[in-house]
Amino acid sequence: MNTTSDNLELERVCTNCNYCFLSEPFASDFVICLKDPEFEPYLDEILEEQDFSRCQDLVKQKRFPWEQEACPDFDPMESSDEDIPLSPELSCAIDQLAKDGNLTSETIQQAIFEDMVDEIDWAKVPVEKYVERLDNAKTPEARKKAVQGFGGLISQKNKAAFNALFSYLKDLPPPTTVEQTHLRVEILRQLKLALNFQEKLARLLVKDLFRTPSNNTTRGWYTAVFRFFESVSADIAVEALAPMLSSPQFSYRIKKRVKNILERLNDYW
After folding, report:
1. Are 115 and 90 in contact (CB under 8 A)?
2. DSSP string, 117-147
3. Residue 6 neighbours by CB under 8 Å, 6+ apart
4. Judgement on whether residues 152 and 70 belong to the same structural domain of the protein
5. pLDDT range class, residue 187, cuts 50, 70, 90
6. pLDDT score of 6
7. Which of 27, 116, 216, 243 lies deepest, with the highest CB count within 10 Å?
């Protein structure tokens, strides 16, 4: 089919230039210019993975509105009278834009970009840069965002993302501050998205409780772990939690909580 964009006369604005690129992945009100030499070291990451992690500050400094008047290096997007093969999803999206009266060069560019994102096999996306981002995070908010980045991949069945975040949790020392407890809770929230690895996660969580004292600081972690077990199968819960009932390490209150979980799951006791 012919894309309707072939009939649009492109204005000399940056959004109609081949060097124009969204300043954040998936959607943005701002763009960056890939011809800017300062972006040269990051082009592979930006173009192949929509990964801005190493140049976030530069992007914030350099980004500008879509409709900015183009510079002398303006390289207009090519239009053609020839048929251009589109995916069925992209074709439908463009047709819907036309029906709604929203068909412009900007909305077409956004639709094409979203279609490209949809074509990415997220289950096989490498996670090295996600690991690096988490390891280099210096603030609680930065660590939380880095952990949530893993969650998006885990929800798309990216096994490497689960294993990397799993290993990160495994290597964490017992929490000694509320802030550290909150980080663990967020990690567990993302790991729970991997339904195929509940048994592996259950074993790690109980092992972690054996090395984590129960006190006011860690109460939120214990609560999050027990809520996880309330959502898994009885077989997984019984196998993982049973050792806690015979250990003198845990208080009567904690053991009672464990028994209540198992009773609700399958009348185990």
Report:
1. yes
2. HHTS-GGG---HHHHHHHHH--SHHHHHHHH
3. 79, 80, 81
4. no
5. very high
6. 41
7. 243
Identify the CATH number of the domain in which residue 130 sits: 1.25.10
Side chain identity at residue 183, one-letter code? L
102, 231: one domain: no
Same domain, 139 and 198: yes
The CA distances from residue 25 to 82, 126, 129, 180, in Å, are 30, 16, 15, 29
Reference 165, options 138, 146, 137; nearest CA is: 146
Contact criterion met (CB below 8 Å) for 218 and 175 = yes
Domain termination residue (choose one: 99, 120, 141): 120
Instruction: Provide the number of structural domains found in the chain.
Output: 2
Which H or E element spans position 29?
Answer: none
